[in-house]
């Protein structure tokens, strides 16, 4: 029998596949593409994925090693997923082994045998006697328990992961169990099939004609690739369109993949899906442990999950009967991974839809310029939802000129007045400040010495509660010096204002109101965010202070005043995308105001109210602003009219990365231009000096070819051993 060789993707930072031999003892049954095998690589044993099961051996045969074992478990990858991941590696010029590594749940990257306990679900107990009295009591006395019971009762079985993500606690679950209202059962892992009671008809809304046209366009394109952009303000009924588009797909016993920026932050969205469909839903987000992630992976792969809802990396979930992909908030920058494998989830999802010949739906109130341009040029089907569904009105945005105002603690007189009136009406106020900590710097009031992180050359942020100086760039911490190290003065004071300070100032200004701060610092503890959000919904707090975190998808019906305290940073950034992101943020924030029947107001404080970008956005809206900006990008030959790659390099000395990148610019690359090398906006971070080189082309083909040529040059670059470098295709953040 001839020797059998296979090609394997291994988690190492090298771009090639590796050849191994299959010893006779392991050759039956035949090895398949997508199988996981253990192989030795240098001194290590690693998991590899079989990419080619019938490879030629191009090496000296005596040097080729045998595979060690085959992992005969349920967790092999399908041929289709393997091809997809190869496409991803190819698109981003990223080491293929690392792509597989990152796409797999952590437990599948390990050699140890995995034992998953059978999936458990909660069900309503069939009552032996009438329990309507008990339920009536529950409804009055314990509303949350009652709501939990109703969700469980509406389903044939719902997992703890789902319930937890919806914001329910173990205690509430235990309480219902001890009342014998619910029981826990093993889930039968059969393929999901559509049934009579799968759809909750009562919950279904009658579509507006705008909505109905979109649903029918999507349904007409099932079983072929098409990309739909739904462009509609917050509250215009996009989610309802997603839900009704899914019906036909689910009824065909196909699966739906739904991607959202942050599920933990938006339990309301998940709740809508849970309410509407009584089907097994698998979740994929950062609040899951390794076993739970693997369980999601498995239920998707086996087809027992009908819907997978997840964040960015859910795009790599195996779904062998996938019929539709939905990406909510397609403009959101969290869809792009910003380290190692720098993929954009939306773009990879489109690639996957194309591969599988299925439709994909992108939804947003503020389309990314990339998607908008693709829609305008006819590459995508473009659907606009111009009116808010339901009763609510659109919030008005007004600018406040800070030069004309008495300002106290960063709050203008106008804003304070509006806050008082809103609070007096019993409604809530959201203040938005994108700077956590107490103050962005501390300095000496005598000699103006500034406490700076030595490793980044940037000011330390003061965290008053922890009594620490923390560098927000590298994370290093330091105690607050009692004296100025430069002149010895004790007059050291905070400079500027962060959310922590704003919170304590508001306590002075509004002693009657309860204030809650929601940022990365205040929500570090597990479950804390869900708890705070619930408290806001329950109106335990009247004033909300938050960072960008709060701009995403929350639904606070009683927040009728939203203020952005400081918008100026984005107006003068060197990054051409900063204004796009600023505009998206303002519109998203505005979407938080007055979603219910109460009208909302949005105030934006600026020292530059005459700035044309702000004026255009406020008076003419996002779309006018976006069209204007697209025209400018076209003239300036910037994306989305051209294509970019960013080569980043850093080292302990500034000359190394500069020379490394400069050497690469010596050879002309056809159809491409170089910009740089230039020092990164943050030139020094954690002790390293950082440089950027942008490669730009008018066609993606040219860019792709150029990158291949650069990658061939790099091993011969005399500086390459002295620098760390990384490649970012379609970069969206030039600040890094
Ligand atoms: P989006 O996803 O665009 O923010 P939603 O789908 O969440 O919008 O809709 C916003 C609100 O309007 C929700 O309360 C929803 O129930 C309601 N709504 C959506 N579509 C309709 C409709 N066709 N008829 C009545 N109400 C609707
Ligand atoms: Zn001093
Ligand atoms: Zn630092």
From TrEMBL:
Pfam families: DEAD, Helicase_C, PriA_3primeBD, PriA_C, Zn_ribbon_PriA. SUPFAM superfamilies: P-loop containing nucleoside triphosphate hydrolases. Zn(2+) 2 binds at residues 453, 456, 471, 474. It comes from the Bacteria. Residues 219-385 form the Helicase ATP-binding domain. InterPro entries: DEAD/DEAH_box_helicase_dom, Helicase_ATP-bd, Helicase_C-like, P-loop_NTPase, PriA, PriA_3primeBD, PriA_3primeBD_sf, PriA_C. GO terms for molecular function: 3'-5' DNA helicase activity; ATP binding; ATP hydrolysis activity; DNA binding; zinc ion binding. Residues 464-638 form the Helicase C-terminal domain. It catalyses: ATP + H2O = ADP + phosphate + H(+); Couples ATP hydrolysis with the unwinding of duplex DNA by translocating in the 3'-5' direction. NCBIfam families: priA (TIGR00595), PRK05580.1-1 (NF004065), PRK05580.1-4 (NF004067). This is Replication restart protein PriA. It comes from Colwellia psychrerythraea (strain 34H / ATCC BAA-681) (Vibrio psychroerythus).
